Amino acid sequence: MKELKDRILTDGKNMGGGILNVNSFLNHQVDCRLMVRIGQELASRFASDEVDKILTAEISGIAPALEVGVALGIPVVFARKIWSLTMPPDSFERMVPSRTKGTMVQLIVARDFLTPEDRVLVIDDFLATGKTIEALGTIVKESGAQLVGFGAVIEKAFEGGRQRLAPFDVPTESAVIIESMEDDKIVFR
Amino acid sequence: MKELKDRILTDGKNMGGGILNVNSFLNHQVDCRLMVRIGQELASRFASDEVDKILTAEISGIAPALEVGVALGIPVVFARKIWSLTMPPDSFERMVPSRTKGTMVQLIVARDFLTPEDRVLVIDDFLATGKTIEALGTIVKESGAQLVGFGAVIEKAFEGGRQRLAPFDVPTESAVIIESMEDDKIVFR
Questions:
Q1: pLDDT score recorded for residue A85
Q2: Residue of A28, A34, A83 to mutate when probing chain B, most B C-beta within 10 A
Q3: Which residues contact residue A94 at a Cβ distance below 8 angstroms, ignoring those fewer than 6 apart?
Q4: What average pLDDT does this structure show over B61-77?
Q5: Predicted pLDDT at A100
Q6: ipTM, interface predicted TM-score of the complex
Q7: For a Cys-Cys bond, which of A15, A147, A181, B76 suits B69, CB 3.0-4.6 Å?
Q8: Would you call B36 and A63 a contact, using CB atoms and an 8 Å cutoff?
Q9: Which residues of chain B lie closer than 8 angstroms to A35, CB-CB?
């Protein structure tokens, strides 16, 4: 997706250690028009897969997942990271490490919203180590729903996420793939 | 907004204590098509106000704010609640109580994304006590940007949020207003 590559080169910040700061257009400030086009791009990759639900993780997954959901005309479920009074105690639950926060976080999904009848596409902003998306895939499997594929806005290929997701044996699509971020550069595949 | 009132009566759960559970279509599972129409509805209320930026708070504010941003063709900034490696230490910051989580949470906005040139509309999912929206309004004022108004998807009029926001002297619009939630009922204005 050329528009997104150009935007990453213009406004993304390589902070070292494999951290790409896209706060100015993707996950603190959101360029809504770009996000709509990202949603359409990812939706087009799964257009023939009869997806009927999107699963993502709060927080930064919500915007791209919502626009994929709008493009496909289907609902989005976002896994919550903090228990609240409205979440049932028997919810699906996984622990995953947060890269940018340096802690473990929970992913929590109420059982009502993932059923064996669902065909689920998992969407997130980044595919890096793949641990968050792997946890979402595992929750889909546990629910008995059909896992259709994985979609990410930005894949950092050098962190091995795609290999981690290989055992699920479903298509993995990214709007852009970054091959390396060494020496302050950002090199796309 | 009749469609949203009907949906709240069909799928919302009055959990007592003024807590309305709308997890099935608004803030755990999101009905994307409904959210687009909510965004258009709130956008229409501020169509003549030359808004050029939306400010919201993660997590549940993101979806409605994004669709208002899409409808108006402008960017959305969502205040972060947890410090991460990508947030500058001089960011704007306020503490607010979280009703459903029973704790205090931070709202953090990087200075780069709110400037004196901006005309800012604050959007959130709920207007209840108004403390979150008040904190966002205060951040807008601190940034020197022009505060244009407040918009919420669901206002719980009996919690006094509108009175709390009155000192800002800007329009406050809600897609639906709930007058009372006593005795297991949901009564709209």
A1: 83
A2: A28
A3: A106, A107, A135, A138, A139
A4: 98
A5: 67
A6: 0.95
A7: B76
A8: no
A9: 66, 70
